[in-house]
Every structure is written in C-alpha cells, then in structure tokens.
Amino acid sequence: MLSKLYHIRDGCLIRMLCVFLSIRIDDGQNGSHFEPKPVPPPLPNKCDWEVDPSELDFSNSNIIGKGSFGEILRASWRGTPVAVKRILPSLSDDRLVIQDFRHEVNLLVKLRHPNVVQFLGAVTDKKPLMLITEYLRGGDLHQYLKEKNGLNSSAAINFALDIARGMAYLHNEPNVIIHRDLKPRNVLLVNSSADHLKVGDFGLSKLIKVQNSHDVYKMTGETGSYRYMAPEVFKHRKYDKKVDVFSFAMILYEMIEGEPPFSNHEPYEAAKLVAEGHRPNFRSKSFLPELRDLTGKCWASDMNQRPSFLEILKRLEKIKGNAPSDSHWNIFGS
What we know:
By secondary structure, the protein is of the alpha+beta class. It has helices at about 1-20, 95-110, 140-150, 155-170, 230-235, 240-255, 265-275, 290-300, 310-320; strands spanning about 25-30, 30-35, 55-65, 70-75, 80-85, 120-125, 130-135, 175-180, 185-190, 195-200, 205-210. It catalyses: L-threonyl-[protein] + ATP = O-phospho-L-threonyl-[protein] + ADP + H(+); L-seryl-[protein] + ATP = O-phospho-L-seryl-[protein] + ADP + H(+).
C-alpha cells in the first residue's frame, strides 16, 4: 500500500515538473515518452523596436522640424515626450523614400552613445512611416548660436568635445558611419541649460565596412549642406570619413565667431569658395591660438592632413586644460 502511494506521489511530481518545464508526456505501452512543447516567440515576425502607432499620442503635438520628406513632431509615447519623424503619406509608397527611411532605421538601431541621439522605435508596417527618437528640450545648436551671438572659448571647447565624442564613436572602425551632413541644425542640446550636446539626424549617413584605414569611397557628390560641405564632396571626388572633420571645423568656427562661415554668401557660393581654397577669416578674440590651429588642420584641403576625431579629442582636452581659468566662469562671449 505504501509503495503504491509513493508511486502515485512520484508520478504527480513528474507531471507537475513537466507542466512547469513545458514538456508533454505521452504514456505508452513501452513507458513514458517526453517531448518538448514548442513555445511561440513573444513577438512573431516583428522587431522588438516596432511601435504600434496607436501608442503615439499627437493630441498636444507641435512641429519642431520640416523637410521635403515630411515633418518632425514632438509627441508622447507611453507617457514620455518623444520626437517623431513622420513621412508624408503621399511619399509612403515611394520606393526611394522607403529605402532611405529603412536605411536610417537600420543605422540608428545599432547606435548607443551619450553624445548620439537615442533611437526608441519605428513604425514600418503601417502608414505613415514614423521614426521615434528621444526628445531633446534644448533645441538645435543653430538656433542656440543665433540667440547667443557666439560663445567664448571655454563654452565652445565643451560643445566641441561633446560633438567630437559622438563623432569618434560613429567613426570607430571597422563599421564606420560617415554622417555626411554634420551642421549646427543636426546637433541638439539636451536641455535649456545647454550642458550637453548630441549628434542627430542620420538621414544622409553612410555605413561603411572599412577594410583599410586609408580606404576612400566614391559616394554621392554634393551630399549634405553646402555651407558645411568638404571641398572633395562639392567636387564629386572620392572621399572618406574626414568629410565630417571638415564640417566639424566649420561648426567650431561658427560657435566662436557667432555667425556661419561665409555668412555674406549664399550656401552654394560659400561651398564654391571653399572648393577654390578659400577659408573664412578669424576675427573673434575668443578664438585662442590653439583653437585656430586645430580649426585650420580640420579644414585642410587635403583630407589626409585632417586629424581623426580621437586626435581632435586629445587636442581639445589639452587646450581645455591650458585655457585661462577666468574663462571657465564666463559662459558666453561678449
């Protein structure tokens, strides 16, 4: 009798364990047969970053950017403020638009860095197509510089360090991401205190698998914004990641001078002047000699003479350490 009770008890334990471990028992004449029970994936045929558009709340949204592709809106997602790039419905069936959109999503999914705008999700299987990133309350660097009319060397160095850190991450080999449209409008301030910057908008970025650190590529000519464009791009020549270093130099110039490079010329004319070998003049007293030297190296006509962003970071840290102590207390230039 006791042995039967033990047998019943053991059988129940085995069945309980099998249920817990999702295993099916098939009792047959030759004994029990254990067979794994298939467990369906939690999100079949979907990426974990795919967002259901019903989760996005546009009731209190406002437009924070516009372009030929569509618009960027401030919205709410699961109670959190986000930035949503929404493709125009009329373009949602355009093959090239869809291709560019998916390219940007595929790039952003891979990126994780404090100085790069954070990707949160996307709507890809319903229309309109949408790309969701963190919302940065400080706006873009273009508007900030317009209001401040230039920064002193200390503030400019801190801003430059943030941009260079983000770009050094993007340029990390072997999977190099060339931004190709680095400009003040694509650099965002985390908050109104302007104590932290992030690089954003990767719509024109190019992911390259580098075989050799000196490889150059024949890519789309005149890609990006003319005023910050490297001469080799304007001339439709082969180029590499150093095009971003050139654009960085133009941004550094604008941060200290308080106006865009060649501001008295139209963007195309400015790019033409650069391609002919001209560079904007240094006028601000805030432009430390060391910063002028670094800027000059970064906008060198020969891309091979331009430093990498890792080298730029080292130079900026050294310049920051040697900067006059009183400039650390005066955030904005006079």
